[in-house]
Design a protein that fits this description.
The complex is a heterotrimer of chains A (586), B (247) and C (127). Chain A is an alpha/beta fold. In chain A, 35% of the residues lie in helices and 19% in strands. Chain A has 15 helices and 24 strands. A five-stranded parallel beta sheet of chain A has the order 7-3-2-11-19, with helices on both faces. In chain A, β8 and β9 form a beta hairpin. The longest helix of chain A is centred in the last third of the chain and has 25 residues. Chain A is globular, with a radius of gyration of 23 Å. Chain B has a five-stranded mixed beta sheet with strand order 2-1-5-3-4. Chain B has a two-stranded antiparallel sheet with strand order 6-7. Chain C is mostly helical. In chain C, a hairpin with a 2-residue loop joins β1 and β2. The chains are: A alpha/beta (586), B alpha+beta (247), C mainly alpha (127). Chains in contact: A-B, B-C. Chains A and B meet through α3, α4, α9 and α14 of A and α1, α2 and α3 of B.
């Protein structure tokens, strides 16, 4: 096995990983950074984010308002020290991106423009047309090319962490083009591998969103946190699940049921606002969990429009005008035409809620530290928790930047203070075992299961049992199915035995990660006997602050389901209150 | 649900087994709203799990799934199967790149060239964060905005006859990035990019065949960018002659 | 090892129709060169005196020469039209947030071409 010695390993080269790498390279150019990713950085799923990144910049806005919106949006499960830090740092990070060349959309006077976004009291979402994530990613990637201290390992598939003496020592990864295994030995490891939305059948997520880093940390004994909180984005295209940004609604797009009725007003988000005029934090600019839940109710009532890919409602942007759509939502128009055959300028677009984001992830504190010394996590892969039980749109792109920088600072401090790892034979043995595990999977014969088959069963089970609304029965069925699938996973045989870019192997490894994380979702959900944010139970409809104002921790127990435990939420300024998204607030 | 029948003739190559690439044919009953990528995914999931290719977003923004479909460089996620109904469709890796495995090409050359053109803001004087954003009017943004849309899918390199003949050519996408930054009002790095860009293997290997812009799935118009870059680098060269190079 | 697909240095332009068209367009520059040579020849004849110039004019009347001149003229027109149609890409003109339409830029080229041509023909006494 090849060995690479470095100071800090970052796994994942999306927005969070790149921001972290740049921060380390800028602040400590003497340190060596190994930036490992299973895809070229431009392919990271940050590129698909559309709407924008939130940060207080306009004079009529305030950090307190951003704080309140985020904490309330998260149904009081957010750690308020994290939120406080986040809202403070957000504007600086977004300005930094401007200095690095991000093509933010502008006001006529040349200052940065902001747009309204769901659950936000004031306009504070910076945007680059409707390709904000794409532009942020490319800005960060291109900027990262300036720093010789960042050594990239593109298309290296990370398998497992190396741990010894209670410290994270590095990671074992496979060079995808050769099958060669590498032992990356470092003083600190930062995981920035994104979420795991691919465990569901319909999501806005790309193929690569399989939670590899979260699963690695989980297997190494670090608990996951709040995995049962899965966000359904209200407006995804049918059949493909492709995202139509919240920005559509920010610009004035509305949701209609089969009768053309703007149904959100029936679910506490009214009164109906005039067409084309948005009122922040009500109607179509309510939070994502409420909007997705409203769809579910409409579906129960028979108000949705059947299509050959399932039930839908309409996202109507026909009143916005071609000029505005071409200027602010050009990608949305292109996507609707290409993938749904509908031009939003002239027709309403059929959409439905699709899985989009995982609020949960690797349990970290405000410093991006995990419970394993030397291991950090940032971005969607982590749960600090900024987003609590439901994320507000446009907070996550900013989260990558703010916590990327913080993780970098803390990792650097850790590395500078850490005693040298020294040569550790235990590490080599561990790495060899990891390699043996992979070789066994490749060489295994006599398998009866297919990757696609198990993947589909897992996904269907999660959608039916752990979807927008859950019950004890549906969750129990899902928990049982996942448990069974984890056993059947061992019956997979790879037909591709090649060492060269063996995607059969990568898909098998990804499926293994997804199955483990799926279990944390289902088991966390069944244990949480309340409804909060995006976790909604028909058998426990109320929020239960007495028993469940806390984070769910899930600890890996090998073949057994995870051990569930709880962790307090940091509450500072904002006591749990009512989430009121009606226009006529008391 | 109506189906579209497609016969995919896919290039296969495993350097551990094959001395040369060869083709394998797969008959797929596609849903008629599928893209070619969906058909390829179907092949991998249900017919032949050994097929290797890159893909991720399925919405033409990550740039992973560039391949030759019926001889044309395209994103597989943006090529409707209905365009090929009832036909035999040849699916090959992007032209002008070495084949790593099946539909996966070696991209190292592009990654190197992208880095060489210094695709980042270069400033002589930095503004501090406290001073706020660099003001940029909507007109100034419009000047370079189109060139920011490149997803690095490399379809342009697959189409470019010069890149096919002259491997040293820096190529459409990378040079477009240089131009994108040159045109950004916040950038002051044009002179610094000159050495890399105003060279034979830079803009001057471009013969304006225009194939790159023809195939670009994001309508970036790299051909236009390169011609503009030719003019800009020439002006800069003359400026250098009379001591106004501004290095 | 990675497999490199060979590209023929001699017949690559036959691989795609668009490549063949492109190379034919490139070949029109040969006729631009021919025209330039004829022009230079004529200029040197003018400089050499009225007899030399008369001889030059007569050489242009042979059937082979007439064919060459016709072909060259047609190809030059095609070359100019092709060139004008792509010029807007090389020199975008931005007015505020909008770009001047390509047709306007190309159109301006045609106008200048016609005006200059009429001027030259006037000076040559054609009208």
């Amino acid at each position: 096995m090849q060995q690479i010695d470095t100071d800090i390993v970052i796994v994942g080269a999306g927005g969070a990983g790149l921001r972290t790498a740049i921060a380390i390279a800028e602040g400590s150019p003497d340190l060596k950074v190994a930036l490992i990713s299973k895809v070229y950085p431009m392919r990271s799923h940050t590129c698909a984010a559309e709407g924008g990144a939130a940060g207080v910049i306009k004079s009529d806005d305030s950090l307190d308002l951003h704080f309140d919106d985020t904490v309330g949006g998260g149904d009081w499960l957010s750690d308020q020290d994290v939120v406080e830090y986040f809202v403070n740092e957000a504007p600086k990070e977004l300005l930094q991106l401007d200095h690095w060349g991000c093509p933010w959309s502008r006001e006529s006077d040349g200052s940065v423009a902001v747009r309204p976004f769901g659950g936000m009291k004031m306009k504070r979402t910076w945007y680059a047309a409707d390709k904000s994530g794409f532009h942020i990613l490319h800005t960060l990637f291109q900027t990262s090319l300036k720093y010789p201290g960042i050594e990239r390992f593109d298309e290296f598939f990370s398998i497992d962490l190396l741990v010894s003496d209670g410290r994270c020592r590095g990671v074992v990864a496979m060079e995808m083009k050769s099958g060669q295994m590498y032992r990356f030995q470092a003083k600190a490891v930062i995981l920035a591998t994104g979420g795991a939305g691919r465990m569901f059948p319909f999501s806005t997520n790309g193929a690569i969103k399989t939670g590899d880093g979260t699963a690695m940390a989980y297997r190494a004994g670090v608990p996951t946190k709040d995995m049962e909180f899965v966000q359904y984005h209200p407006t995804g295209l049918l059949s493909t699940g492709i995202l139509l940004t919240e920005g559509c609604r920010g610009e004035g797009g509305v949701l209609r049921n089969k009768d053309g009725h703007r149904y959100l007003q029936d679910y506490g988000m009214g009164p109906e606002t005039p067409l084309g005029e948005t009122v922040l934090k009500t109607m179509e600019l309510g939070p994502r969990d409420r909007l997705s839940q409203a769809f579910w109710h409409e579906q129960q009532k028979g108000n949705t429009i059947p299509t050959r890919w399932g039930e839908s409602v309409y996202l109507d942007m026909t009143h916005l005008g071609e000029k505005l759509i071409n200027e602010r939502l050009p990608l949305v128009r292109d996507l609707s035409i290409t993938y749904a055959g509908v031009d939003p300028v002239s027709d309403p677009v059929p959409i439905r809620p699709v899985v989009h984001y995982m609020m949960g992830g690797i349990h970290t504190n405000i410093d991006a530290e995990t419970t394993l010394s030397g291991l950090f996590a940032v971005g969607e892969a982590a749960c600090a928790s900024l987003n609590g039980a439901n994320r507000l749109g446009s907070n996550s792109l900013t989260e990558l930047l703010v916590f990327g920088k913080r993780a970098a600072a803390n990792a650097v401090e850790y590395v500078k203070g850490a005693a040298s790892a020294g040569e550790d034979a235990g590490i080599r043995e561990q790495a060899d075992k990891i390699e043996a595990k992979v070789r066994e999977l490749i060489q295994r014969t006599g398998g009866t299961e297919s990757i696609a088959g198990i993947r589909k069963e897992m996904a269907d089970s999660l959608e039916s049992g752990a979807g927008i609304y859950r019950t004890e029965e549906t969750l129990r069925a899902t928990c049982d199915t996942i448990r069974e699938l984890r056993k059947r996973y061992r019956g997979i045989e790879l037909h591709d035995k090649s060492n060269v870019f063996n995607t059969d192997l990568f898909q098998a490894l990804e499926l293994g990660n997804l199955l483990e994380l799926a279990q944390t979702v289902a088991e966390g959900a069944i244990a949480r006997k309340e409804s909060r944010g995006s976790h909604q139970r028909l058998d426990y409809e109320a929020r239960d602050d007495d028993n469940f104002l806390k984070h769910t921790l899930a600890f890996y127990q090998g073949d057994e389901p995870p051990r569930i435990d709880y962790h307090d939420v940091v509450i500072t300024k904002s006591q749990p209150g009512v989430r009121d998204y009606s226009g006529d607030k008391k | 649900m109506s189906t579209t029948k497609l016969e995919l003739e896919i290039l296969r190559y495993d350097p551990e087994k094959d001395r040369e690439p060869h083709f394998e044919t797969y008959a797929v009953a596609c849903q008629d709203d599928w893209m070619v990528l969906d058909a390829i995914n179907h092949v991998k999931d249900h017919m032949d799990t050994t097929l290797s290719y890159r893909w991720s977003c399925h919405m033409a923004v990550c740039g992973s799934c560039g391949m030759m479909i019926d001889g044309q460089p395209k994103l597989a996620c943006k090529a409707p199967v209905s365009d090929y109904a009832g036909q035999k469709v040849r699916v090959e890796p992007l032209a002008n790149f070495p084949i790593e495995r099946d539909l996966v090409v070696v991209m190292d050359d592009f990654m190197d060239k992208l880095k060489r053109v210094k695709p980042y803001i270069i400033r002589k004087d930095e503004k501090s964060i406290e001073e706020g954003e660099y003001k940029q009017s909507p007109a100034e943004l419009k000047k370079y905005k189109q060139f920011t849309l490149c997803i690095n899918c490399l379809c342009c390199y697959a189409a470019c006859p010069q890149y096919a003949l002259i491997p040293e050519f820096i190529g459409p996408a990378a040079l477009t990035m240089a131009h994108r930054y040159n045109q950004d009002s916040r950038d002051q790095g044009l002179a610094e990019r000159q050495d890399e860009v105003a060279t034979p293997e830079g803009v001057w290997d471009c013969s304006f065949a225009g194939e790159c812009s023809e195939v670009c799935p994001k309508h970036v118009d790299p051909a236009g960018a390169l011609q503009q870059l030719k003019i800009a680098t020439t002006v800069q060269w003359y400026k250098g002659l009379i001591g106004m190079g501004g290095k | 090892m990675a497999y490199v697909r060979p590209v023929s240095k001699t017949s690559w332009y036959l691989a795609r129709r668009s490549y063949t068209v492109h190379m034919l367009q490139e070949l029109t520059s040969i006729f631009v060169g021919i025209f330039a040579l004829i022009l230079l020849w004529g200029l040197s004849a003018v400089a050499a005196g009225p007899e030399a110039y008369q001889q030059f004019l007569e050489s242009l009347t042979g059937p082979g020469m007439v064919l060459l001149l016709w072909v060259t003229t047609v190809v030059m027109f095609y070359h100019a039209v092709a060139w004008f149609s792509v010029t807007p890409k090389a020199m975008p003109i931005q007015r505020g947030e909008e770009f001047v339409p390509g047709s306007v830029i190309a159109g301006a080229h045609y106008v200048v071409w016609i005006v200059l041509s009429v001027l030259v023909l006037l000076l040559a006494g054609v009208f």
